[in-house]
């Protein structure tokens, strides 16, 4: 998954000047919210974001417009400038604005909303069907890339296990666990042929802050900067990586979300797709990033080791959930 920064670093005076010049809006007040600005104007409230890493924002906007036409409306509207452009420019950087939705962020304990989220994600995926997939060289095309990612990870682990620098008991334990999980992921994906995978446009960043609730407790999706075309089970696994982990991967919670998704899509997930889902869960990008930060640098230090150990111990809480979910989702079919 690629990461996109939307941080706005220019001062408020310049932001007001840009908005007045390019959008013909009167700025009443600005409020810093994380890395962006909430802009109160005479014609409504908007978000002001950096788009320096989003040269294809018009493409994203077109995808979202088509998703809305296909029936999923719970996504934000992007704002066009006076010149009819989505991107505006100042001092070599690009910015964009979108409507600021009057919603509340999903609470950190998200279990009470798992059914609503499962249903919303299913309908979002259904609405994305029919939108052309990008060329294979487009960074938003991530369908079918998991196998090569696992092969690359396994080669790194092979090299590190043969490296005399990593003979400490803790490092040996970490490498052994990583290899076990990487081989598990490869086993699952070998029983999940690529042509059996259902590709959709995935949100690709289903953290709490990107899931919002309206007054009717319906789920809205925001922040589509990381939108990508890939297998639909990626979004399911990615969601659980953020929302099931605080619940110690309780199988009932995972089943609640996945069952709701299953009954909400026109084409239910088949066994071969579930195998890819388990491959994603077995070796998530979080593990890869953490192993690179420790084994991939010189003299990483004790603090990096402690964070690595903490990550792996958290990952181990997922183990009891694997068999329960596999029995429920695959063996029961």
UniProtKB/TrEMBL annotation:
<dbReference type="GO" id="GO:0042601">
    <property type="term" value="C:endospore-forming forespore"/>
</dbReference>
<dbReference type="InterPro" id="IPR011009">
    <property type="entry name" value="Kinase-like_dom_sf"/>
</dbReference>
<dbReference type="InterPro" id="IPR047175">
    <property type="entry name" value="CotS-like"/>
</dbReference>
<keyword id="KW-0167">Capsid protein</keyword>
<keyword id="KW-0946">Virion</keyword>
<dbReference type="Pfam" id="PF01633">
    <property type="entry name" value="Choline_kinase"/>
</dbReference>
<protein>
    <submittedName>
        <fullName>CotS family spore coat protein</fullName>
    </submittedName>
</protein>
């Amino acid at each position: 998954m690629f990461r996109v920064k939307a941080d706005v670093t220019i001062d408020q005076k310049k932001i007001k000047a840009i908005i007045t010049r390019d959008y013909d809006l009167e700025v009443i007040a600005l409020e810093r919210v994380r890395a962006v600005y909430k802009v109160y104007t005479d014609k409504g409230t908007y978000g002001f974001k950096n788009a320096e890493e989003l040269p294809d924002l018009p493409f994203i906007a077109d995808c979202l417009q088509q998703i809305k036409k296909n029936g999923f409306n719970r996504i934000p509207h992007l704002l066009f400038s006076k010149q009819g452009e989505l991107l505006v420019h100042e001092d070599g950087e690009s910015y964009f604005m979108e409507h600021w939705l009057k919603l509340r962020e999903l609470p950190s304990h998200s279990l009470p909303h798992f059914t609503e989220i499962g249903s919303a994600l299913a309908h979002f995926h259904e609405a994305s069907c029919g939108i052309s997939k990008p060329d294979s060289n487009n960074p938003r095309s991530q369908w079918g890339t998991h196998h090569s990612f696992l092969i690359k990870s396994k080669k790194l682990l092979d090299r590190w296990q043969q490296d005399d620098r990593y003979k400490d008991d803790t490092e040996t334990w970490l490498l052994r666990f990583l290899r076990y999980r990487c081989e598990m992921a490869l086993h699952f994906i070998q029983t999940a042929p690529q042509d059996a995978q259902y590709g959709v446009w995935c949100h690709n960043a289903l953290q709490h802050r990107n899931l919002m609730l309206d007054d009717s407790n319906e789920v809205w999706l925001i922040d589509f900067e990381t939108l990508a075309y890939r297998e639909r089970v990626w979004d399911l696994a990615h969601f659980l990586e953020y929302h099931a982990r605080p619940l110690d991967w309780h199988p009932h919670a995972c089943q609640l979300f996945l069952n709701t998704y299953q009954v909400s899509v026109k084409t239910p997930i088949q066994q071969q797709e579930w195998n890819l889902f388990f491959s994603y869960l077995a070796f998530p990008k979080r593990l890869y990033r953490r192993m690179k930060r420790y084994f991939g640098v010189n003299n990483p230090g004790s603090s990096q080791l402690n964070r690595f150990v903490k990550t792996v111990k958290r990952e181990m809480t997922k183990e009891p959930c694997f068999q329960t979910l596999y029995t429920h989702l695959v063996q029961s079919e």
